């Protein structure tokens, strides 16, 4: 399972907030879309790694 670096995530959110305060809404939305896609990819990778894990006999 991949770990989400909370500090790095907070820094990226802070960057988006700075962009919003500056009034560049298009760039802020674009950055949020990128962040969302990266987080969803992480979740997808986690789900794939869990589904590929061999199952115990009682889980079959």
Plain-language structure description:
By secondary structure, the protein is mostly helical. Helices cover 73% and strands 0% of the residues. Helix 1 packs antiparallel against helix 2. The longest helix is centred in the middle third of the chain and has 27 residues. The protein is elongated. It starts with 5 loop residues before the first helix and ends in a 9-residue tail after the last helix. The relative contact order is 0.13. The model has no long low-confidence stretch (mean pLDDT 85).
Q: DSSP strand (E) fraction?
A: under 5%
Straight-line distance between termini: 22 Å
Order of helices and strands: HH
The overall pLDDT, averaged over residues, is 85
The main β sheet shows up as: none
Helix content: over 70%
Global shape: elongated
How big is the Rg?
17 Å
Q: Which regions are unreliable across 5 or more consecutive residues at pLDDT < 50?
A: none
Structural class: mainly alpha
